[in-house]
Description:
Threonyl-tRNA Synthetase, Chain A, domain 2; 41% helix
Amino acid sequence: MTASELRKKYLEFFQSKGHAVISGKSLIPENDPTVLFNTAGMQPLVPYLLGAAHPLGTRLTDVQKCVRTGDIESVGDPSHLTFFEMLGNWSLGDYFKNEALSWSFEFLTSPRWLGISPDKLWVTVFAGEDGIPRDEESADLWKSLGIPAHRISYLGRKDNWWGPAGQTGPCGPDSEMFYDTGRPCPKGEACEGPSCGCGRWLEIWNDVFMQYNKTAEGQYELLSKPNVDTGMGVERTSTILQGKKSVYETELFTPILAAVQKATGVTYGNSDGDDTNIRIICDHIKTACFILGDDLGVTPSNVGQGYVLRRLIRRAVRCGRKLGVLEPFLAGPAAAVLDIYRGVYDEVASRSALIFEELTREEEKFLKTLEHGEHEFEKMLPNLERNPKKEIPGRLAFKLYDTYGFPIEITEELAAEHGMTVDRPGFDEAFVKHQELSKAGADKTFKGGLADHSEMTTKLHTATHLMHKALQMVLGEHARQKGSNITPERLRFDFSHGEKMTEEQLRRVEAIVNEQIQRALPVSMTTMPIQEAKGLGAMALFGEKYEDVVKVYRIGDFSLEVCGGPHVENTGSLGHFRILKEEASSAGVRRIRAVLEDR
Ligand code: GLY
């Protein structure tokens, strides 16, 4: 079964169980400062999982693009990926454990659907911890579906608890489904089952019973209505259905694998070390293409999503170096990525020119960094060689890293070429000290991101709508939203406009927004078909995919915008709006930071 058949069957199955199919969202979350990327299908649905009504009802299903860098160290093994697609089905206060588990089992095992042998399935359930009870209900349900007791493991929070996706939000105990690959465990009979980490057990699906909301204060409050959130991995499930040993052998990777072999001249399957590097390149180049090619895509930089992108590209370049490639080589593998997802995620292929340009630029830049670092290393060399210990001091290795961006692994490689070693503990110590310093800085930002649904962010969200409209009045209709990010301290808004705004224009925007605040306009929400919303002239994010039925927020007679909310009830509560800064964000895009102050 191909991945595209799997996606189709999944949606069809859940549609047959009364679920509305919604479209997956951008990889980059809008208005959620707690995360850089959507790491699970539930993420764009957080407001609904917290109780807001979804326009399409209480049973939803979709396919969502995800990026997770939390397990990046495991990438290179047969199943961990930084980019993957998640199939999901949700109950918003509708069905609970019984239906969720029965349907998961039916979809996995029924010959009408995936037809996986039930004998291959092992499951885990929550063992109970921190005053949250053991999930006997799920265990009993699994038994009644035919999973014998010895294939049901009870595990604690570390394994059987999911969420929140960011620092706050919905979460709860879960029940996970594993496929027994039959690969021998080094511990033999003593294998611990699904939690063993031996590579025999492949997690394919997770049913989360979302009963709690983790607050900014770290409390778990019960949700008024419990939800179900499930996530099934497309790449892993395809691997099983196709009888393959790793995700890289499915059609979601084979063309990339071929392109990497061609670009590096190294054959896959000859050496474990080379294979790991080839796999990491395949994974990272795919993720880089999806980040660059997203509707809300970003380019490499030193902050936020751009920094993750930069690290992925650089790591791929380093893996290439280990395979002997010293020139830019990622364009070929990137072309393979674009081909695989044409017709599935057309936004990526449609940005091919930008993707190739940015990739090659970043590769060239990093290769120059490496060259520069090597040059500095050579300058240090005569002194270093006089050192009787033949050891490069940690502080020098850290200087190469910190000042020239020279990765420690490369310093170690170069040292080895000259019969030397690096004082790694010394480097680590300098590194940790540096991390602590920057963490102190990061914690400040982090705190700002915590209260994403707090009162202040809600106010700033409404102010953003007012400003969006005011910008169009002052600059023209072309001044459309390109991105938005809100913390409790400020709003940040990117919009299309070709030149710097004048002081006068800025003051006019401020004045228009403050006038709407003074008018104390009521804010109301209605749901309607997207076509109707467009007909009414509602602003909708260009390039964003919308469900057929959408929420439209109306602010008095002033603004009408398609949006998920939340918003204040009346603009009178906003205070005084002030623009702090207007600057260039990228070509043709300007960025405004603004605040609301007490009057
Ligand atoms: N949200 C469920 C999962 O990611 O496993």
